[in-house]
Target: GST N-terminal domain-containing protein
Amino acid sequence: MSEKHLKTGDSLPPYSGKLRLFAMRFCPYAERSVLVLNAKKLAYDLVFIDLDNKPEWIFSFNPKGSVPVLEYEEGKAIFDSTIINVYLDEKYPESRGTTYLAGDQPGLIDYTIWPFLERFLALPLLGKTDFAIDQSKYEVLTVPAVKSYCLAPETHSKFTESRVKGNPDYNMLDTSDVVCCMRPRKKKE
Model:
């Protein structure tokens, strides 16, 4: 690992076949993913990016050019530390010994992380990943506090697509049939 931050004009290092994390050494969001990679003892390459003078090629991995970005296969990447860490936990699971992150009952950490997991489940529908996600593993979906508010992956996908097209449909829940927490939601009359 080089501590040098690559900048505009620098070449993309050759892909080694290992996971590759694009980060900035002082970024707390990137550090989250470094910690998960290290805790799981995964082999990976770490490439630092100068965020004030970004190399042109970083935009092919993340249209915003922000970090962290995890290249999990040559040319295939995901970004956002929460999404990266959920992916790593799905792909390289470890036994917690309890159903929920907080223990035998859901706790603050489960409620804090769930909104990101909920959106993560929509990634395959958006064509952003080529890995399957087993929704049955998410016991938190049966918790009344979650079940009463969550939206299904199809609904998040539909909203994200409207946002990407530049016309986010913030009122889609009022105007269309959408799926809420794995069940159809009725149209308002």
